[in-house]
Amino acid sequence: MAGQKETIELEYILNTTPGLLFNRISTASGLSEWFADEVNIDGKVFVLRWEGSEQRVEQTVRKENKLVRYTWVDDEELEGEWFEFRINVDELTGDVALIVIDNVDVDEKDDLIEIWNRQIDTLKRGLGSI
């Protein structure tokens, strides 16, 4: 069924600090290191560019060193859709995990998981976490 959505939650253990990770997921300069080719800010909107395409998101939730949610704007197909980054620190081991929550079309789920995996690999390299 076309257009059926599913929420996915992916967890990645990163060898970094919550503060350093939060900078990479919550700022234009941080996001441009791993998430998009170029990220600019237009008011409250982050303008994301990849190989000639452009999309816009607004940072709608921000909790310092904990989570960031971005809501897609100016795109009828994605209207009201969002994705979220959460930082979780294991109390026993001190491991820092990045949890990615995204809403995906069921028929595109595997492709999107693969895209997230590649993006997070880039993030890990940038953090020296591989």
- Assign the structural class, choosing from mainly alpha, mainly beta, alpha/beta, alpha+beta, or little secondary structure: alpha+beta
Number of strands: 7
Specify the CATH homologous superfamily. Answer: START domain
Radius of gyration: 15 Å
Q: H/E order of the elements? A: EHHEEEEEEH
Taking the alpha carbons of the first and last residues, their distance comes to 38 Å
Shape: globular
- For the biggest β-sheet, the strand order reads 1-7-6-5-4-3-2
Give the overall pLDDT as a whole number.
Answer: 92
Oligomer designation: single chain
Describe what you observe in this structure.
It comes from Xiashengella succiniciproducens. Residues 4-128 form the START-like domain. InterPro entries: START-like_dom_sf (IPR023393), START_2 (IPR045736). The protein is an alpha+beta fold and 130 residues long. The chain has a single domain, classed as Alpha-D-Glucose-1,6-Bisphosphate, Chain A, domain 4. The protein has helices spanning 18-26, 28-32, 109-127, and strands at residues 5-14, 38-42, 45-50, 53-63, 67-73, 82-89, 96-105. Strands 1-7-6-5-4-3-2 form a seven-stranded antiparallel sheet. The longest helix is centred in the last third of the chain and has 19 residues, at 109-127. It starts with a strand and ends with a helix.
